[in-house]
Amino acid sequence: MINLERVGEHEFVATNGRGASVRIGRKGQEGSFSPVELLVAAAAGCAMVTSETVILRRTGSDRLTAEADAVQSESGNEVISIPVTLSYDLSAVEDVEALETVVRRAVEQFCTVTRTLKQSATAPLQLPTPLQTAPDPL
Questions:
Q1: Rounded to whole angstroms, how far apart are CA atoms 116 and 112?
Q2: H or E element: which one contains 28?
Q3: Which of 1, 13, 26, 33 sits CB 3.0–4.6 Å from 37 for a disulfide?
């Protein structure tokens, strides 16, 4: 579970149960990630976490980076694609196509974030309800 707390105008801090936190704010706000940037980071991060072991084992290098961005609809109110580009050294790889196949398969099968995005997960919104008060017996 993630807890989110308002810490200032348009500023929030998200915290997980392991004590990690990230500052969230509006797009362009200094020192924070926007919600869309977090979605993009989640997609790239999931691809990297999922493929890290096989890439490092087969390349013999510990250098692995990713770049991702949100492609938004014309209205700007919807993300329609999050292209993720992984970068790693192929100089020691004998069969580049085989590595590409294994990396794609790993991400497609085990990356929860990208699999969820493909299915268009719902995000039901729950709002507080007014407290029910008992009628005054007098």
A1: 6
A2: none
A3: 33
Which helix H or strand E contains 43, and what residues bound it?
helix 35-59
Q: Is 82 left (phi over 0), alpha (psi -120 to 50) or beta?
A: beta
Q: What is the pTM of this model?
A: 0.86
Burial of 82 (0-12, 13-18, 19+ CB in 10 A): buried
pLDDT over threshold 90, residue 132:
no
Q: Mind giving me the DSSP string for 65-134? A: EEEE-PEEPTTSSSEEE--EEEEE--TT-S-HHHHHHHHHHHHHHH-HHHHHHHHT---------PPP-P
